[in-house]
Amino acid sequence: MNVRRRKISGIAVATAAALGLGTLSACSSDSSAAGNTDKLDVVASFYPMQYLAEEIGGDHVNVTTLTEPGQEPHDLELSAKQTAQMGEADAVLYLKSLQPTVDEAVAQSDVKTKIDAAGLTKLEDHGSVEHDHGGEGHSEEEHAEEGHSEEEHALDPHVWLDPVKYAEIAEGVAKSFEKADPDHADDYRKNADALAKKLGDLDTAFKDGLANTDTKVFFTNHAAFGYLAERYGLTQEAINGLDPESEPSPARIKELQEEAKADGVTTVFYETLVSDKTAKTLAKDAGLKTDVLDPLEGITDKSKGDDYVGVMEANLKALQSALGAK
Fold it and tell me: CA-based, 20 to 30 A from 197: which of 92, 246, 262, 279?
């Protein structure tokens, strides 16, 4: 992300890491810390990377994740323990530009296999949305640290929400695993092919399910769904920009209210890891419904699915309902 916001206490993260980092890999059969197993030890930066590592690696990998379930990944600050753990791993899988602290730690790490998901597909600029922080909750120092203008555009990191681009990343991850652990290359290839089929089926479901709708416009809390919208011929209008915690200006709210009427928008989507206050206020003022569209930055008890595919299927149903799919 090009925007640096409030930081989670290093002490809090360190405490959480000490209490449960080894158990964060929901699907891994081995919950030992990275570097201490006879498997390929992979550190994943956040859930979409963890899912790829587990699906492709299968029984041959031990996956730990740096971002706790329920933690907003953009805000991650690494503890000393997590940084050390990364250095002991066989591989690290991350998405450059999403989590600046992870980028810095990876750059300084001696880990042999560094897999940057952003380099395995093409990131795009989906434009920025005007956002006015209004000074609330932000010090002058934080504003200076953010250092961005209201006209600034940045490459959108949310590639995992497009099943086609996610599949491109998966293919690159598989090749890296095969190279890092050639003894199990055949299994990695087999698992990668199975994942490719899952993602291909998901792409077909979205393509068919959103082909004929009353409207193509949907409102979201922040601009996480640009790739998905572009893939399936939709238009995302975000209350905020790429920063999920920025505050929209009154002019932006008025603009969205007018657009809702013009384009037949029925629903304002919010997400589970970020406050829904602004989305619900806009919906109330404009007479719209609200629903969840999950950016899949983490799986929690509130997620409408147990894994990436399950949550994406729930997202498809939510979009079909909101857009009036035939």
Answer: 92
Query: For residues 184 and 60, what is the distance between their CA atoms, to the nearest angstrom?
Result: 7
The pLDDT score that the predictor gives to residue 36 is 58
- Total residues belonging to the chain: 326
Core vs surface per residue 303-317: b (16+ CB within 10 A) or e: beeebbbebbbbbbe
The Cα–Cα gap between 147 and 141 comes to: 10
Q: State the pLDDT at residue 113.
A: 97
Q: pTM for this structure? A: 0.80
> Which pLDDT does position 152 carry in this prediction?
46
For residues 286 and 260, is the Cβ–Cβ distance under 8 A? yes
Distance CA 42, CA 312 (A): 24
Q: What's the pLDDT at 254? A: 87
Contacts for 50 with CB less than 8 Å, ≥ 6 apart: 24, 25, 26, 44, 63, 65
Burial of 264 (0-12, 13-18, 19+ CB in 10 A): middle
**What is the tens place of the pLDDT at every residue in 156-201?**
999 999 999 999 999 999 999 999 999 999 999 999 999 999 999 9
CB 70 within 8 A of CB 18: no
Ramachandran angles phi, psi of 99, nearest 5°? -130, 95
- What is the Cα–Cα distance from 265 to 324, expressed in whole angstroms? 10
In what side-by-side order are the strands of the sheet with 40-44?
Answer: 61-65, 40-44, 91-94, 113-116
**Percent of residues, the chain, with pLDDT higher than 70:** 78
Angle between helices 308-323 and 185-209 (to 10 degrees): 10
- In the chain, the DSSP E strands lie at 40-44, 61-65, 91-94, 113-116, 124-125, 155-156, 217-220, 235-238, 267-270, 289-292
pLDDT band for position 75 (cuts 50, 70, 90): confident
3-state secondary structure of 136: coil
CA dist., res. 259 & res. 241, Å (int) = 17
